[in-house]
Specification:
The complex is a heterodimer. Chain A is an all-alpha fold. Chain A is built from ten helices and no strands. The mean pLDDT of chain A is 88. Classes of the chains: A mainly alpha, B alpha/beta.
Chain lengths: 249, 286
């Protein structure tokens, strides 16, 4: 039953897509999309050219890039979040700056990355890291602030060293918040990947989408869009599972 | 020379709107080594503030606290604390919670020996079978046992207890009170304990001295009352003991009289004082 209703939703969406394709001749129908792009799905690991590759290979390149950028983002974001959470002074110093930088689009960071690093691959990682680290910073910071006074009292009364307080109290108390941050960061990293691949022309799902748009093969664009959505959904679910396990522990 | 000496301690807090709220004024107290002192007062009368000043968690605005000849400016190594809300770390098991205290007190001790000591401390409070459970898997009484085990695990000379049994049901409370008495008398060094409570009954059961806290703001301490009832004491025995009822009446009279006078005459009297007085009287007559 809990699968039936979502299936009905999908069927309705495909019907709407089909209806739209009848009215707009340029838009490929669901059947035509499948016909024209099944080669990418049925042979997911075949490499025919630089961007002309099976969908699994393209997704793999994109995921690899996302993983690198995301890891970079949380490796910067987590310690920064802890620092801002522990020190009200640092927080007051950097909060306005953070609020200004947070809404900047990946499309704006990318050219800056190109100027800074001269290489499109590094620039893409830079854009992913910079855009995706904010939820990690903010959630980690909020998590540290939300540590109940009781736990600080335990640290004081037991005369725990700074290291022990950090490892035994601050980190475990903040962990659930941190993971919420990681989940949101990963979502953003996946959003940014498409934009950065489109601009840098790197092989991947986003690069594929851009190239097929330039070749006017609309069926492949639809394939790329659906792939991006499905992968994003799966990533979010996986992080959600990790988060739930953590809260249960 | 007294073991704990508190001299003219004053403390106020500044509220968020900048208003200054006096909490304690001119509080003095002496405790001899090995004594069990109960500070009794109504809720919100500043008891916790006084205890955290004694323990070195809070600095007084004026006055001084000297323990064993040393001015208190931080938490002492030989002191242990039991809070009302257990204050256990939920991500650690009972044994790990206790071991954390041992590790902090004796960092050079081998990890296994720390764990063994933690286990022994838990066995002392009857939790030998629950060492690997987390606080969420323990009842309120069991959690407080873990907290008590943690306090005694480091062999403290000084014990600060902040309404440790306040959140427990009557039966559990009585068992834990007796456990506490047993633990205090079974240590090698004499344990000096300062406990705050809002239960006169509990104070009579445990204390050598009862110090009434007269509510303010700012709160002050009344004259200490010596409790010379023979030990061991039990709730049942105290209920029928004549001397105990005299002491009880005296303590309650001290506490409520001040409250009532304040409520009637003083310009600073507030409706809260009157309510507090009535509630305290009602609680004790039950």
């Amino acid at each position: 039953m809990h699968l039936l209703l979502p299936m009905v939703g999908v069927v309705l969406a495909v019907l709407a897509w089909w209806a739209a394709s009848v009215m707009i001749p340029e838009l490929p129908s669901p059947a035509r999309t499948w016909q024209e792009s099944k080669i990418y799905i049925l042979q997911p690991l075949v490499k025919r050219g630089e961007t002309d590759q099976g969908i699994a290979l393209l997704a793999y390149y994109s995921l690899l890039r996302v993983a690198q950028g995301f890891l970079l983002g949380i490796m910067i974001g987590t310690p920064v979040g802890f620092l801002l959470g522990v020190s009200p002074l640092l927080c007051r110093m950097f909060d306005p700056l953070m609020q200004v930088m947070r809404p900047i689009s990946p499309l704006a960071w990318l050219p800056l990355g190109l100027v800074l690093f001269q290489k499109s691959e590094t620039a893409a990682l830079f854009a992913i890291a910079v855009c995706s680290m904010w939820p990690t910073i903010i959630n980690t910071m909020v998590g540290v602030r939300a540590i109940p006074q009781d736990y600080w009292n335990v640290a004081k009364v037991l005369r725990l060293s700074k290291t022990t307080t950090f490892l035994k109290i601050i980190v475990p108390a903040t962990l659930p918040y941190m993971f919420t941050g990681y989940r949101l960061s990963l979502g953003i990293a996946w959003l940014v990947i498409v934009a950065s691949e489109m601009l840098t022309g790197a092989p991947g799902v986003g690069g594929f989408l851009w190239q097929e748009y330039n070749s006017l093969i609309y069926a492949h664009i639809l394939l790329a869009i659906i792939t991006i959505g499905v992968i994003g959904f799966v990533l979010d679910r996986l992080m959600g599972l990790a988060e739930a396990r953590l809260r249960a522990a | 020379m007294p073991f704990i000496e508190v001299a003219r301690v004053t403390k106020s807090y500044t509220a968020a709107n900048g208003a200054i709220r006096p909490v304690l004024r001119g509080v003095s107290l002496s405790v001899q080594r090995g004594e069990f002192v109960c500070i009794v007062g109504a809720m919100g009368s500043g008891k916790s503030t006084l205890l955290s000043i004694l323990a070195g968690l809070t600095r007084p605005d004026a006055g001084r606290v000297v323990i064993d000849g040393e001015p208190v400016d931080r938490v002492r190594a030989d002191a242990a604390f039991v809070f009302q809300n257990y204050s256990l770390l939920p991500w650690l098991t009972a044994q790990e919670n206790v071991r954390l205290a041992i590790e902090a007190a004796a960092p050079t001790l081998a990890r296994q020996e720390q764990a063994a000591r933690a286990r022994r401390a838990l066995e002392q409070v009857g939790l030998g079978t629950a060492v690997n459970r987390r606080p969420s898997q323990l009842s309120g009484g069991m959690r407080q046992r873990v907290a008590i085990a943690r306090a005694f695990a480091t062999d403290p000379e000084l014990l600060f207890l902040d309404e440790p049994f306040g959140a427990l049901d009557a039966l559990t409370r009585e068992t834990l009170q007796q456990d506490l008495v047993r633990l205090c008398s079974s240590t090698e060094r004499p344990v000096t304990a300062v406990m705050i409570t809002n239960s006169v009954e509990e104070a009579i059961l445990l204390a050598d001295w009862i110090v009434p806290m007269l509510p303010g703001p700012p709160a002050t301490l009344g004259a200490p009352i010596r409790i010379q009832l023979p030990r061991p004491r039990s709730v049942a025995q105290l209920a029928h003991d004549e001397e105990a009822s005299e002491v009880r009446a005296h303590v309650i009279a001290t506490l409520t009289a001040t409250l009532c006078v304040r409520a009637r005459g003083s310009s600073m009297a507030s409706p809260q004082d009157a309510i507090a007085a009535r509630r305290l009287a009602a609680e004790e007559s039950r």
